[in-house]
Amino acid sequence: MFFIVREGEYFGAPALTDRQFRYGFIGESEVDELMEFRGSPKREEVRLWLDQGKRCFAAWEGPRLAATMWCDFQEFNYPPNYRRLNDDEVYMFAAFAHADYRGQNLAPNMRLQCYQALEKMGRHSCLSYTDYFNVAARRFKEKLGARNKMLRLHICLFGRWSRTLTLRTY
Questions:
Q1: Domains along the chain?
Q2: How far is CA 170 from the centre of its chain?
Q3: What is the model's pLDDT at position 28?
Q4: What is the pLDDT of residues 98-112, one digit of tens each?
Q5: Strand (E) or helix (H) holding 43
Q6: Residue-wise DSSP of 49-80
Q7: Which residue, 91, 93, 106, 153, could crosslink 72 as a Cys pair with Cβ 3.0–4.6 Å?
Q8: Is residue 119 within 8 Å of residue 34, measured between CB atoms?
Q9: How does the average pLDDT of the chain come out, rounded?
C-alpha cells in the first residue's frame, strides 16, 4: 500500500539549522561529483536519468555535496502508479542525505528550496509517493504541508499478474 502525495502547496518557513547550505539543480559541471555521491544510483542510471530530462536538485555545504533529490518532468515513474505528467506537474523521487547531515533539518530545507525552484519553472504540482508503513516519511511530508491524494494498493502475483487499486481518494 502507498499514498500518492501532493507537495509544495505550502512553503512555510525554513527549519532551523546551524549550517549554511547552498541549494540548486546539478549543473553539467557537477555531474561527476553527483556520480561519486554515495546516495546516487549507479553511474549508468544517473547518465540515463539526465539524458531522459530528469534533473537532480541538491544541497551543498561549501564544496561538499550533502543531499540530493530527483525530479522527473515527464512521468510519474513509480511503476505501480506510472502515468504521464501534465505541464505543471513534477514527480519527486530518490531523495538521499549523506549520513553526516542527517538530523540537522537539511531535508525539509532542501525540499522547501526545491518547491520554490520548481514554482519558478511553472511546476505548481509536486507529486511523490509514500509507503503506507513508512511512518517517518509520512510525518516528514505532513510537516511540510503535503496532502495525501490517494491510498493505493498494488497486488502482484508470481511476477506475471499485477493490478493497482485505489482504496481511497482524499
A1: 2-169 (3.40.630.30)
A2: 21
A3: 84
A4: 999 988 889 999 999
A5: helix 43-51
A6: HHHTT-EEEEEEETTEEEEEEEEESSEE--GG
A7: 91
A8: no
A9: 92
Report the alpha-carbon distance of residue 123 to residue 136 in Å, rounded: 26
Question: Torsion angle of alpha carbons 67, 108, 57, 18, nearest 10°?
Answer: -60
* Nine-digit cell string for 131: 509507503
Cα of 135 vs its chain's centroid, Å: 17
Distance CA 1, CA 150 (A): 10
For residue 101, the tally of other CB atoms under 10 A from its CB is: 20
Say if CB 75 and CB 84 are below 8 A apart.
yes
Write the DSSP assignment of 128-150 as a string of letters.
EEEETT-HHHHHHHHHTT-EEEE
Question: pTM, whole model, 2 decimals?
Answer: 0.91
Q: If 0-12 CB within 10 Å is exposed, 13-18 middle and 19+ buried, where does residue 25 land? A: middle
